[in-house]
Design brief:
The structure is a homodimer of 313-residue chains. Chain A is α/β, with parallel strands linked by helices and 313 residues long. In chain A, 54% of the residues lie in helices and 12% in strands. Chain A folds into two domains: 208 residues, Rossmann fold (3-Layer(aba) Sandwich); 51 residues, no CATH class. Chain A has a seven-stranded parallel beta sheet, with helices on both faces. The first copy, chain A, starts with a helix and ends with a helix.
Amino acid sequence: MHEITKRILAGDVRGAARAITCIENDYPERSQILQEIFPYTGRAKLIGITGTPGAGKSSMVDCLIGFLRSQGLTVGVAAVDPTSPFTGGALLGDRVRMQNHALDTGVFIRSMGTRGSLGGLSRNTKDAVRVLDAYGCDVILIETVGVGQSELDVMNIADTTIVVLNPGGGDSVQAFKAGIMEIADLFVINKADLPGVDKLETEVEQMLDLVKHDAPWRPPISKTISTQNLGMADMWNEVLRHQAFLESSGEWQKKRAKQLQEEVLDIVNYQMFVRMQNFVQKGAFADELSGVAQRQLDPYSVAEKMVRTWFPQ
Amino acid sequence: MHEITKRILAGDVRGAARAITCIENDYPERSQILQEIFPYTGRAKLIGITGTPGAGKSSMVDCLIGFLRSQGLTVGVAAVDPTSPFTGGALLGDRVRMQNHALDTGVFIRSMGTRGSLGGLSRNTKDAVRVLDAYGCDVILIETVGVGQSELDVMNIADTTIVVLNPGGGDSVQAFKAGIMEIADLFVINKADLPGVDKLETEVEQMLDLVKHDAPWRPPISKTISTQNLGMADMWNEVLRHQAFLESSGEWQKKRAKQLQEEVLDIVNYQMFVRMQNFVQKGAFADELSGVAQRQLDPYSVAEKMVRTWFPQ
């Protein structure tokens, strides 16, 4: 067993942090650690939290962490920021939050930035969440900004997805409705002391009538005021209610099984890509690639030739 | 030569539409058509247009199309909406625009939705843009919503990227600054008749001072009022100035060559993934995958075994 695996399973916070660094940088020990911790995962509650910037997501998460700690639960946070591929993904408000909980060993907060491509963010986040799970976090919050494709991929990791709305957000529901309605298991109207709450609630209900009219789970709407630390217990109750629904539903087991199988193909695909890149860096198909760069050959024919060579089956 | 290729090169609009359908659905003729049209591509100006929802992007594009037509240029539009993987990507305002230009054979508008994953959107968009290029469009506008990772991948196709800002947008610059600043070649403040224009302009300039202080190209800021059809000629001049800058810069040629080579590997990777999925559907590694689904095996070990079998080199 790898030294880092031992440290994770022993609840060593620096071991967990080190493992996530290995994941983000794709160090050689990544695979071994993940193989070894896998049997110790699947225990934590995975909660996705998303919403447009400015919806007060960060302060709501901060509040929720405090509530969960008061219930004696340990909390991991993977703060994912796919909109900042260049900065490495420093989430707004993240540093503040880290300071609030810096002295609490029951809270582990980690920012996940975009490194690489090809689904790298959701793969890395999934693996980091497994580390937090094996490390012993009871609840893992997976927080993202917005609802682009990357965020949807990331939210797919969560069992329960919370969408945070802001009564002052105006067209936020309209703008993002397609994606949001499909992934939300629970809506939270944060800043519920501001005007516009009833209107927003009605809008969301109307959209749910349209989209979820025959779904077995209709997302409830919770209201919170994170600046006053209000509404957390109610919101958490809705989360637990959703998780109970999931467990009683056979579909959920099927979905999880299917996701694990898809993950295998995703890893294979990534590994093959890495190998392929190595070959190319060592000079494989150099003439053909140079021809493409000069537009003398088309990329499609050259790609076909490579596939026939490398994957002839 | 494929029948559809002939029709594209003959300027048959339905041939071009048919080719894009082949691309989006990954029909068998896709590859042949793309190989055949490749020598006829690389001529059109590729302009990316992005901005947060509500920035007036759609109406600005509508206006720009009118301006370009008045200059005797033919225009293709690939409207990409990665935020709507479930609806197939019907962009807000898209239908209206289509009606405005429905009778003009010099305008070709196509919505690109999210089908599949693994960079499918940017690959499909790139290929659709090639079709529009070979079909004879002088200018191709690639329009996206927001600036998530998918949008950045899509914008990478463009030579010049325009970021549309809204003086009433409040925190839009703040929220998206990291991504936006890196990809923008030109900022456009649309709705420039609204209050807040000077403030927004100052904010953008300040951010440019920070991010682009030593860059060879400093993105200019244009102002437009698309409801009054104002500012289009100035904006287009800035686009042309940027394209002249690109052509005089050797770096750009290198970047394009590198992108073409990366595209080859991207296609190879996708093709290998498709083959792999076919094998799995036919029962390859069924026991191992079933073990993963039941959490008796970990996905990482099974993936490694598959890679060793399929890609032993």
